[in-house]
Write a structure and sequence with these properties.
heterotrimer; A alpha/beta (about 250); B mainly beta (about 90); C mainly beta (about 260); B: about 90 residues; mainly beta; five-stranded antiparallel β-sheet; 8 strands; about 10% helix; C: about 260 residues; Quinone Oxidoreductase, Chain A, domain 1; 4 helices
Chain lengths: ~250, ~90, ~260
Amino acid sequence: MSSATRATERTIGWRAVEVRETIRETPSAATLVLDVPGWPGHRAGQHVDVRLTAEDGYQASRSYSIASAPEDDDVALTIQRLDDGEVSPYLVDEVRAGDQLELRGPVGGWFVWTAAQGGPLFLVAGGSGLVPLMAMLRHRANSGSDVEARLLLSARREADVLYASEVRDVIEPAITYTREAPAGWTGYARRVDGAMLAEAGFEPQLRPRIFVCGPTGFVEGVARELVALGHDASRIRTERFGATGG
Amino acid sequence: MDADGLRLDGNAAAGMLDEIFRVETTSAVATCAGCGASRAMGEVHVYAHGPGVVLRCPGCDAVVMRFARIRGRLVADMRGVRTVTF
Amino acid sequence: MKAYELQGPEGIDGMKLVDKPVPTPGPGEVLVRLKAATLNYRDLLTVKGGYGSRQKFPLIPLSDGAGVVESTGPGVKNFAPGDRVIGSFFEGWLGGEPSEVKMRTSLGGAVDGERSWSWEEFRALPSEAITVDIHCVTAWSKFATGWEGVSVDTLLEGVEPLGAYVMAHSYGGYTTNLPVEDITDGKAWVAYAYDGAPLEPEHGGPARLLVPHLYFWKSAKWLRGIEFMDANEPGFWESLGYHDYGDPWREQRYQGD
C-alpha cells in the first residue's frame, strides 16, 4: 500500500485485516505483516489491539506494539508467545498468510517518539519490550536523524533476542543476558540495575528522553532506578506488558 | 492490594479509551479526585484481570475510572477523576 | 450546640439534628470545638447497626475529627485551650509499625459483633481439600480445580447472622454481595491454596472467598472480611451492571438477566 492511498482520517473501532506474510523471528516469536486498507499511518511507539473470535462467539483481544517504522508501507506486529497465553500461541504458531484478524488502531499518543522531539534518546527494553523501541530506532534511521540514541536490552538468552541482526544496523546495543549468556560473552550477565543503567545510558544532566518497555516488574524497577540516578521522572515514559511480557 | 504483577498502564487501555473519547487519550492529563495529583492517562495504573477494567491513581491507589461491558455496551464510571484535560 | 444524633436502631432514619447543651469536660477530658469531621467506616457500621448490640442510644456517630480545644477538665496537663487537635482512632498506637495489640486499642475497644483472625489463627482452623468446577463470566469454565480452604461455616460457627445478605470485602476496595444462604451449608470457603501451592496474589492470594456455584467474580479475591447486611446492596461490579446473584446455570451475568 503506497502513501498515496493513506487516509487522513483514522478509523476508530474494529476492522478486518488480512495477514500478508508471517516471519519467524525466534523460536517463540513471529512478525505478522498486515494488509490494512485505509491505514492512516502511525507513530513509533504506538500499538494496535487485535481481536480473535472463536466459533462459539467467544472473543479475546490483546494489544501488540507496531514493529514497523512509520515510513514503511507495511504494518508489522511482532508477537511473543506466552506459554499460558490464550491468544499469542495462535498468532505465533497457527496464523498463516491469508488469515483474517480484527484490528483496532493505531492507539497511543503518549508512548511515542518522533525525530522532531529530539534527544538524546535512551531506550530500555525487557524481552519483547523491544518491539515499540525498534519502531523508534527504525524511524530514527529512516528520517536521517542525528539524535544520539542508546539501547539497553535485557533478554533471557541469545535465542530470545528479537531482530538480532537488524538491531545492529541501526544501533550498537548494550545487552544483558539474565538466564544464559552465549559462550565467550564478556558483556552484562545480570538483571538490569542502577549501575548498568548509568553505564549504558546518558547522564541526567543531558536530560535524555527515556522509554522503558517490557514486563511490569522490569519496567517499574528500571523506572525507580532511573529516578534514583537523578533522571527527571517527566522525561521517562513507560509501557508495561503485564506479568510475563507482551 | 491488587494484582501487582498484572498491573498495566494507560497504554493498555488506549484502544478502549479512544473509542469512548474519540480522541487520543493516553496523552490527556487526568486529575485524581482522591488526592488531586495530575498525570498523563498513559501513566495511570490499569488492572484488566477481573470482570472489567479498573484504572487507579499511581499516587494514592484510588479508583480513577472503571469500565465493564454489560450486554455488549461499555459502562463507564468516571467519578474518581476530577477533570481530564485533552 | 447542634449535633446529628442516632436516636435508635432504625439506621439512617434514626438520625436527627438536635440541639444539646454544651458539655463540661470531666476529669481527664477535653472539650473540642470541632472544625471538621470525617466519615469513618465505623460510623457507617454504627448507623447501620452492625457495630455491636451494646450501643446505647442516643449516640453521635463520630470517630474522627479535627478542631480546637475549648476547655479542659480536672487533671489535664497535655492540652490547653486554643490547641489545634485531631482525634486518634487507635488510642494506643501513636507511631511506628502497627501490631495487633496496638490495633485493639481502637476507638470503642474490641468491637462486639466483629470476629477476626490473625493469619496464624486462620490457618489453625480446620480446613479441607476442595475440588470444584468454576464458571467465569466470560463464558469459559474450568473443571475439577483443586483448592484448600476453611469452610465459611467454620468461620460462622456460633455467630448469629446479622442480616440475610453479606458483602465480601477485599483489600483494594473491591466488594461483592451474596445471600447468606449461598455461603453457608458447605457452599463456600475461604481458600488459601490452589493446585497444591499457596494462592498467588494474581489469583487472589493469600486468601480469597470461593463460591463455586456462582459466577467466579463472586469469589472475592484478597478477602479482608465478610460483613452482614439487611439489604442486598450491590458491590463493586454489581453497581456497574453485573448481576446481584450470578447463577451460571441461569446465565445471570448482568442486572436484569
